[in-house]
Design goal:
Blueprint (H helix, E strand, L loop, with lengths): L7 E5 L3 H13 L3 E5 L2 H11 L3 E4 L8 H10 L8 E5 L4 H9 L4 E4 L4 H50 L9 E6 L7 E7 L5 E8 L4 H19 L4 H15 L6 E9 L4 E7 L4 E5 L4 E5 L19 E4 L4 E6 L1 H4 L10 H10 L6 H13 L8 E8 L24 E7 L1 H6 L2 H9 L9 H20 L12 H14 L6 E10 L2 E10 L6 H10 L10 H8 L2 E5 L4 E7 L1
Parallel strand pairs: 1-2, 1-3, 3-4, 4-5
Antiparallel strand pairs: 6-15, 7-8, 8-9, 9-10, 10-13, 11-12, 11-14, 14-15, 16-17, 17-18, 18-20, 19-20
Helix pairs in contact: 2-3, 5-6, 6-7, 9-10, 12-13, 13-16
């Protein structure tokens, strides 16, 4: 223990000899002494000198020590100032009367010098401890104020990061219940240029501010890549790459990513470390699960990362449920976990439009007020099966130019290595977005380029047959064949050319896509589309879509060369 600091001691007595005796002892111990001759003067000296310790007689003229102690105690003070009565009154009732009036100790005169020294030294130690406590309290108050300011700033930033327009999509319902001030769970939703709804539920390891900071880098990556049309596997890989470079080895983020393409009638999922993603029918049955087939993000190096997703074709409307492990691990007072079975039972008993409310209510009924030890988040997404919808061309694309269009050209060629390792359409769209005349048309251009490029790659180079998708389990088989053939592609290329210019008073973008393969029967796909009145077949509708968006679409040769003119 560190040495006690010097005290300022107020000695109060109407006898000078007594004052000198106490003064001598106190000064020999290194303390400062101020004096008063009676209680009234003692009160004034207390207020002016702010002593640390008071040693006071009781029987004095004008005001005795008892009344002086009462008045001193009536003053508000942030620190404790001990009052030690030093009196010749030695009866028990005198001692009790002194302590009850505000005294902290009582010495009977005449006291031995060793006793007086011991008392002063004892209070010096106590007051030193009090000073340390006061300093600690000041530090804690300053720290608390700083933490509250950091929390205020953190809550503002997290609110801005998580209050995304995508989460207000009418097909979504969600909740996020933090175990602490901040939640380490993150919910994101956004639509791609082609209108596909991407959703992400991320659960950072731990909870509180540390977990929230871990999850923060995901938001920008998810939104920027979604808006450029990157597939969810590429988004997962980029987030993993970023987290791996930023986080310490003991930190990671479990992530569920899902892309819902109503127009294409598919749902694609990637799950790394989160509970199963469920597809629930209108009747309340779980008809599909995306189990976790990957580790959480931020663990594997890029060379070992797998971006493989699972896709299924929509046969009936339903809802997708994504949740963090905080939901299924929510415990009752008896320490029983809710579990996926409990979640499924709650959902099966509720009407589709009331399932989110039922799940939240059922979770609270299960835990019955037990304190949460982990963040709990959940997202429920409506997934309709719709008849084919007409895609309208923007009015501005049908009108004469309001101003000149700069002449702009670009050609690019992709060989086997680039076709295997590049997300071609998002990369091209990123370049086209810098052309002023094309900026308002990113959604339509994404749809057009996706169809023309995928036809050239899938059918022209890889020789895939879209009719495979119509078989039972055909979509999964189609994707499997695509992955295998693309991995084994050793020759062939896809060439693309773009030309922005004026033609017949209109600004236009001419696109040309050529592949080096034998071509494909594009006429059959067009005719098949005409027969698909309900738009429920999972293939063959893309060329008609491109024709609806473009002014002209012309196939040449065996279908390995296509030219499209789009009005800007």
């Amino acid at each position: 223990m560190s040495e006690a600091l010097p005290l300022k001691i107020l000695v109060v007595d109407d006898t000078l000899t007594n004052i000198k005796q106490v003064q001598a002892v106190a000064r020999s111990l290194g303390h400062e002494v101020v004096t008063a001759a009676d209680g009234l003067e003692a009160v004034d000296r207390y207020r002016s000198a702010a002593p640390d310790l008071i040693i006071m007689d009781i029987m004095m003229p004008r005001m005795d020590g008892i009344e002086a102690a009462r008045r001193i105690r009536s003053f508000a003070s942030a620190k404790w100032v001990p009052i030690v009565f030093f009196s010749a009154l030695d009866r028990m009732e005198d001692v009790l009367h002194g302590l009850e009036s505000g005294g902290d100790d009582y010495l009977v005169k005449p006291a031995s010098l060793p006793m007086l020294r011991a008392k002063i030294s004892s209070y010096a130690r106590l007051l030193h401890l009090q000073q340390q406590v006061l300093l600690s309290n000041e530090e804690l108050s300053a720290w608390r104020a700083e933490v509250e300011e950091q929390n205020r700033l953190g809550e503002h930033v997290m609110r801005r990061l998580t209050d995304l327009a995508g989460l207000r999509d009418p097909t979504l319902k969600h909740f996020n219940l933090p175990a602490d001030t901040f939640s380490g769970d993150l919910l994101c939703a956004a639509r791609s240029p082609g209108g596909v709804l991407y959703v992400m539920l991320a659960d950072a390891s731990g909870h509180g501010l540390a977990a929230a900071l871990t999850a923060m880098p995901l938001t920008q990556t998810f939104n920027s890549m979604t808006m450029k049309g990157f597939p969810i596997g590429s988004i997962a890989q980029e987030i993993n790459r970023k987290l791996k470079s930023l986080l310490p080895p003991d930190r990671f983020v479990a992530v569920s990513l899902v892309a819902i393409d109503v127009r294409g009638q598919t749902v694609e999922g990637w799950n790394g470390g989160n509970p199963d993603v469920l597809f629930i029918t209108a009747a309340g049955q779980v008809s599909r699960r995306w189990v976790s087939r990957h580790p959480p993000l931020g663990i594997l190096p890029d060379a070992q990362f797998s971006a493989q997703t699972e896709t299924f074709v929509l046969q009936e409307p339903g809802q997708l449920l994504l949740c963090s492990d905080g939901l299924i691990e929510a415990e009752s007072p008896e320490e029983d976990r809710l579990g996926m079975d409990g979640v499924g039972e709650i959902l099966s008993l509720a009407a589709p439009d009331l399932r989110m409310e039922a799940l939240l209510k059922g979770m609270h009924a299960h835990v019955r007020g037990r304190r949460r030890h982990d963040d709990i988040s959940c997202m429920l997404v409506e997934v309709p099966v719709e008849r084919r919808r007409e895609v309208r061309v923007a009015d501005s694309a049908q009108q004469a130019l309001s101003g000149p269009v700069s002449d702009w050209r670009m050609t690019i060629s992709y060989g086997p290595q680039e076709l295997r390792g590049t997300d071609v359409v998002p990369s091209l769209l990123g370049v086209l977005a810098h052309v002023q005349a094309l900026k308002p048309h990113q959604g339509a251009l994404f749809l057009i380029l996706s169809e023309l490029y995928n036809n050239a790659l899938d059918h022209g180079l890889l020789g895939l047959d879209s009719a495979t998708k119509a078989q039972a389990g055909g979509f999964e088989l189609y994707l499997q064949q695509r992955g295998e053939r693309l991995a084994n592609l050793r020759e062939g290329r896809v060439d693309l050319a773009f030309h922005v210019h004026e033609a017949d008073g209109l600004g236009v973008l001419d696109m040309e896509v050529t592949d080096s393969g034998p071509g494909f029967d594009h006429r059959n796909l067009v005719f098949a589309d005409a027969d698909d009145e309900d738009g429920l077949r999972p293939h063959g509708r893309g060329i008609a879509l491109v024709r609806s968006l473009c002014r002209e679409v012309t196939y040449s040769g065996n279908g390995n060369e296509v030219r499209a003119r789009f009005a800007v």
